[in-house]
Design a protein that fits this description.
20% of the residues lie in helices and 40% in strands. With 347 residues, the chain is an alpha+beta fold. It folds into two domains: 2-161 and 171-183, Immunoglobulin-like; 194-302, Immunoglobulin-like. A hairpin with a 5-residue loop joins strand 5 and strand 6 (94-95). The termini are far apart.
Length: 347
């Protein structure tokens, strides 16, 4: 019965990784010149999965080994392999590649934290056709950990054997990833802890948007998400702008920025609320965060737009200048008139 539950959970996890597996196959087909395959050791729950699925025990050490083979039979290739903590892309999907995505601050271990300092990556060279075993020794804390540790072994070819054509250099970089899922209890059910940590106006690719940062502050994956986000005036219900998405997923301890287009218009000055409704199975999360749009925020966005808004006439400023001009003309006329009057009196 336990084995059946484990297989069901693993099947669900595999659904998260289908898109990634397509990515690795596509990269190889386009001339990656190498392959990466996992070699399973202790703790692996199923050797047919194609990725590491480790049921971990307190204080134990587990080798994560991949076989990297250089498929170029004429030239050597250089590689870099590293452990990566899974993040969530701004498109709302779990990402197993190195990114600069903001993560939730936590004392809980991420995958690179489970190896000795400086041992989270390795660089090496492979002769033509050669194969190398690359191993990372994962040490589970003596007190264990809660939930899921999610990440990958990311292998990148750093050498460049492509030939330049017509004076232009080719700078291809190929990479492959083997996901890693570690937990101490595959039957443990944890509820994601979601929050909106930021909302503001921004410009992405020269287009004005309202952006909210969604955070998952729990050591659990969250998948098959239906998301609806919208913007209202503060304390109002009328939806000014809205955006929906489906089949999203989030990694443990991760955040992502979800952007709502505003029809190429920067929001006018005022106070607003960013709303998010996220549904996965029987779980529903309703989040909201207030934000303010002022002149400074509008100006910062406007200067990055492809088609910036034209500054309108400042009637107060021009009116003031006009009044000063009229007063100066009146003063000059008065002084000239007075001078003429004095001249006639003297005569």
């Amino acid at each position: 019965m336990l084995k059946k539950k484990v297989l069901i959970v693993l099947f669900c996890l595999m659904a998260f990784l289908i898109a990634f597996s397509h990515f690795t196959q596509a990269v190889h087909a386009e001339g990656a010149e190498f392959t990466v395959t996992p070699e399973y050791g202790g703790g692996q729950t199923d050797a047919s999965l194609g990725y590491f699925s480790i049921k971990a025990e307190n204080g134990q050490t587990y080798p994560l080994t991949v076989n990297v083979q250089n498929l170029n039979m004429e030239k050597a290739n250089d590689f870099n392999a590293q452990l990566v903590a899974a993040s969530t892309s701004n498109s709302g999907h779990i990402d197993y590649t190195p990114t600069h995505q903001k993560m939730v601050k936590t004392k809980a271990p991420l995958l690179p934290d489970l190896v000795k300092k400086g041992a989270d990556q390795q660089s090496f060279s492979l002769a033509p056709g050669a194969l190398k075993k690359v191993t990372f020794m994962i040490k589970v804390p003596d007190k264990g950990f809660k939930g899921t540790v999610l990440g990958s072994i990311y292998v990148k070819r750093t050498s460049n054997n492509e030939v330049s054509k017509k004076g232009f250099g080719i700078n291809n970089r190929f990479a492959m990833t083997i996901p890693v899922v570690m937990t101490q209890d595959f039957d443990q059910k944890l509820t994601p802890k979601l929050s909106l940590t930021m909302a503001k106006v921004e410009a992405t690719s020269g287009v004005p948007q309202v952006v909210g940062r969604i955070a998952n502050s729990a050591p659990t994956m969250f998948g098959q998400i239906k998301l609806n986000a919208w913007v209202t005036r503060k304390n109002q219900t009328k939806k000014l702008y809205e955006k929906r998405a489906a089949k999203l997923s989030m990694a443990p301890w991760s955040t992502f920025k979800y952007a709502i287009d505003t029809n190429n218009q920067i929001l006018p000055k005022g106070q607003y609320t960013y709303h998010v409704k996220m549904v996965s199975g029987k779980k529903t999360f309703n989040l909201k965060r207030n934000f303010t749009v002022d002149d400074q925020a509008r100006a910062q966005v406007n200067q990055t737009l492809i088609n910036p808004e034209k500054a309108g006439l400042n009637w107060w400023l021009w009116g003031s200048i006009g009044m000063i001009g009229i007063l100066m003309i009146a003063l000059m006329a008065y002084l000239i008139g007075r001078k003429r009057g004095v001249g006639r009196h003297d005569a």
